[in-house]
Amino acid sequence: MDIALVMKVAGVGMIVTVCCQVLSKAGRDEQAMLVSLSGIVLVLMLLIGELGELFDSVRRVFGL
């Protein structure tokens, strides 16, 4: 796993956290929930490629 991927995930997490806190304090809880859900989707999209490589390497190791 590349350190750049870890930094991207951490950056997305920090931005989403700040946005959610600001929106929650402003009384916009629905928008804060949507921001957090979109952050989760974004991180999952970043990790899809890495998960595919992981499954391929597990298949090669066990000869499946």
Give a written overview of the molecule:
This protein is mainly alpha-helical and about 60 residues long. It has one domain (about 5-60). Helices cover about 90% and strands about 0% of the residues. The protein is built from 2 helices and no strands. The protein has helices spanning about 5-25, 30-60. α1 packs antiparallel against α2. The longest helix is centred in the last third of the chain and has 34 residues, at about 30-60. The mean pLDDT is about 90.
Provide a compact summary of the structure.
The chain contains 2 helices and no strands. α1 packs antiparallel against α2.
Topology, please?
Elements: H1 3-25, H2 29-62
Distance between the termini: 23 Å
How many helices does DSSP assign? 2
In angstroms, what is the radius of gyration? 16 Å
Helix content: over 70%
Topology, number of strands: 0
Q: Structural class of the helices, strands and pairings?
A: mainly alpha
Q: Report the average pLDDT across residues.
A: 92
String of helices and strands: HH
Number of domains: 1
Identify low-pLDDT runs.
Answer: none
Sheet-strand content, in percent, reads under 5%
Shape: elongated
| Major β-sheet annotation | none
